[in-house]
Amino acid sequence: MIGKKLIPIITLLLFTSGIVVGQTYEQKRKEILNRQANTRAEINVLDARIKSYQKRVADAEAEYNKSYKQFENLNSLIALQDDKITQLEKEQEQIEAEIELTENEIEERQEELRVLIENYKKILLFAYKNGKTNNLELLLTAESFNQALVRSYYLKKFEEQKAKQAQQIRQRRSELDQVKIDLRQSLNRNEIVISEIVSEKDVLGDQRSKQMQTVENIKSQRSDLLAELQKNRREKENLENTFTTLINEEARIREAENERLAKLAEARRIADVDRRNSEVAKYSTPITRENLVSDAALLDYDKAFSASKGRLQWPVNSRTVSKKFGRTRNPVYGTYTEHLGINIVTEPASTVKAVADGYIISIAPINGYGDVVIVNHGSYFTTYGNLSRIDVGRYQQVRAGDTIGLSGLADSPLGENLFFMVRQKQENLNPQDWLVK
């Protein structure tokens, strides 16, 4: 009877000794740590830019007549500081996800260890009740030689399983201790990040106070109000007029060329040879500029751009917007102006890339925006302003990711920023609706 009970008990213990987990804890934790590393890299970039603007703010404080420049630098600094806080909060979320994963892993490991210990207790209890004397008795009381061999096999397996389970318990305890160490490390990192967030928010509050003080200083210079407003309006109208002229000229050339091609096709159908040759010669010379993009290619550009809303890559390696699109209130004068695009804070002379396939229709300096490149994408247009260097030519076709030039320097009209604009026909669009979030 004892032999018959022994076999199913040992078999059960053999099959329940290991617990298999799908994706390992180490793999999941490694993925989270990789995301943390990427986020920390972005934070370090923002830190470097923050230090640059902090130096500029300090330099601007040296002279009162640079107060407006100080305000602009503070504005960019605050935008960078806000972005850093956002990234820190993202890092905190990732660490908290790591902590949750680790805590869950500890619970699973503790349950696994409990099951192993319970199984081991059963083995020890069985071994206590059925010692070596009973084992020998099992072999001697076998009804046949084969039965004795079977009992010997399972008794040997039983001893091996007992030793294996003891080893598994030691190993699981060691792994559990390591996971608890991981948890402590995660909790420590989380405390550091939370402390950094609190510190950054305090710094940001001080910067906002300093900005308001700067604004109050500048408000005393009310005599510049009218000139500033008129300047902004002239710059806006100049850019709008440039677009209107370009679009109308492009449409006129394209319409004239299409009309010539239609007349040429009609001429080739004239029956009279002399008259046909005369008319064909009359309309054979293109009246367009060189490198005119075909209507079919233009339609492809348009469709591709239209389908890319919210998915266009940013034109520079920065997503910090210091001046947003649309109607904005001047914090100094309390007046409202229309901003046709966005200003993106960049490193000096950062590489500027085309956001979509298209071709260059204009390269020209525009007051208030510096050197400007305008790219045609069908019925859509993108504008890259405040460039310190231009690497493309007019009517050149570009692909998404091709280099347009370099962004502004400290002495550029908009400082170390890129002016970026999206337009559809006569309507200006919010670029941030089109760029990837």
* Oligomeric state of shown chains: single chain
Number of domains: 2
Order of helical and strand elements: HHHHHHHHEEEEEEEEEEEEEH
Alpha carbon gap, first and last residue: 72 Å
CATH topology of the largest domain, anyone?
Glutathione S-transferase Yfyf (Class Pi), Chain A, domain 2
Regions with pLDDT < 50 over 5+ consecutive residues?
Answer: 1-22
- CATH class of the largest domain reads Mainly Alpha
Count of runs of 4 or more consecutive helical residues: 9
Q: Can you count the beta strands? A: 13
Largest sheet features: 8 strands, antiparallel
Mean pLDDT: 77
How much strand?
A: 5-15%
Question: How big is the Rg?
Answer: 37 Å
Helical content (DSSP H or I, runs of 4+): 55-70%
CATH architecture of the largest domain: Up-down Bundle
Secondary-structure class: alpha+beta
User: What general form does the structure show?
Assistant: flat
Could you give a quick summary of the protein structure above?
This protein has helices at 2-15, 25-61, 67-129, 132-140, 145-219, 225-267, 273-283, 295-306, 431-434; strands at residues 321-323, 326-329, 336-339, 342-345, 351-353, 358-366, 370-376, 380-387, 389-390, 397-398, 403-406, 417-424, 427-429. It is of the alpha+beta class.
